[in-house]
Amino acid sequence: MAQIIKVLKGTKDILPQDVDMWQFVEEKAQKIFGAYGFKEIRTPIIEVTDLFSRGVGDTTDIVNKEMYTFEKSERSITLRPENTAGVVRSYIENGMARLSAPVKLWYKGPMFRYERPQAGRQRQFHQVGVEMFGIKQPAADAEVIMSAVDFLKSIGLNDLEVEINSLGCPKCRAEFKEKLKSVLRPYLNDLCEDCQNRYEKNPLRLLDCKVEDCQKIYSKPEIQKVIMSDFLCDECREHYTELKSYLDAMGVKYSENKLLVRGLDYYTRTVFEIKSNNLGSQNAVCGGGRYDGLVSQLGGEDTPAVGFAMGMERLISLLPEKNSKKLDGYIVSNNTQEAFKLAQELRNQGCSVEFDLANKKFTKQLEKASKVAQKALILGEDEISNGQVSVKNLETGEQIVVDRKNLKL
């Protein structure tokens, strides 16, 4: 016997009994984001590697450790580890800057990162997200956050906590970075290898470290004093204050987290996470923020932008199981040809219908019908000769006889 080939570690089949839940989440995304005016965009799974090293940032774990990259025809190609960079690339390449602002886009699809598989996180995982281009005012930030909250509530998640922070702009952040480096310099050799690398390249990312020894250092009073300081310039402070006023007006419950920096280099000013209390320590179900410099960084015009992404596996893990959708009808008959004809008549009406291709006994067919369909459509010799169908409601047990030409499900 040939050796069985198994699925790669960190990947999973989405089986038929699970697909209904995925479709439920996707349909809610289309409905809620559509209500906010977002249009769906579908970008390629593979992109030029430089898109992510320039866009996501060469100091991030994603670029340094997690990307699936390969050479093809002397070009470096990467399976997308996230989709903001790809959407920005499409925005630039397809001239969307000429459209009236805001340009609102949403997406869904698979992403790829080489990391340790864990609950709700795989090497091939799926995200749903939105991106908004062209609006610098904080009302855009607030609307994006509100759309995320509405979407999560629409799929049944209500135990949500919104955390926000402002990373400032390059101008005011530069001074903060130098202060942070200054107070951390005496502890540099005690930091983990990743933090030591980030110290020069992107010190703000130090705050994102989850290593316990590093966290102890960052909790020291002299370091906390810098972290908790109000380093924002007047313009960034006004933006952040106005964002909070919008969230207050919309009744969004939020808390401020000075340690919230997110794991990607392109964020400026607003960053946010939405957390669920049902996921334990790794409880973020949504993360996003403003990335006003990314479009110009990737070759486009200077364009303000804001967005978020959510991991679909995590979302689905929090939802109660849904029963699989049942067929509208299952034809029970030992006349396969007539059953085939009736099935096609009903399918042409838009109904979901099956019949027994193997021509099993009536009792076996009725047994299957009770499991997979809402109604059993009995087509015996009498029904065929009289041009009728016996319709049995499999929930109530009620059975009626109707003319075949008038049959509606």
Itemize the secondary structure elements and their pairings.
Layout: H1 16-35, E1 39-40, E2 46-48, H2 49-55, H3 61-66, E3 68-72, E4 75-79, H4 84-93, E5 103-112, E6 124-133, H5 138-154, E7 160-166, H6 170-184, H7 193-201, H8 212-218, H9 221-227, H10 234-249, E8 254-256, E9 268-276, E10 284-290, H11 294-297, E11 305-311, H12 312-317, E12 329-332, H13 336-348, E13 353-355, H14 362-372, E14 375-378, H15 381-386, E15 388-393, E16 399-403
Parallel strand pairs: 1-5, 7-8, 12-13, 12-14
Antiparallel strand pairs: 2-4, 3-4, 5-6, 6-11, 7-9, 9-10, 10-11, 14-15, 15-16
Helix pairs in contact: 1-5, 5-10, 6-9
First-last Cα distance: 47 Å
Number of strands: 16
Briefly note the structural class of the backbone.
Answer: alpha+beta
User: What count of helical segments does DSSP give?
Assistant: 15
State the low-pLDDT regions, or none: none
**Average pLDDT, to the nearest integer?**
92
Assign the CATH class of the largest domain: Alpha Beta
Q: How much is the radius of gyration in Å?
A: 27 Å
Describe the structure.
There is one protein chain. The chain is an alpha+beta fold. It has 2 domains: 16-168 and 232-317, BirA Bifunctional Protein, domain 2; 329-406, Rossmann fold (3-Layer(aba) Sandwich), CATH 3.40.50. Helix content is 38%, strand content 22%. The protein has an 8-stranded mixed β-sheet with strand order 1-5-6-11-10-9-7-8. Strand 9 and strand 10 form a beta hairpin. Helix 6 runs antiparallel to helix 9. The two termini are 47 Å apart. The model has no long low-confidence stretch (mean pLDDT 92).
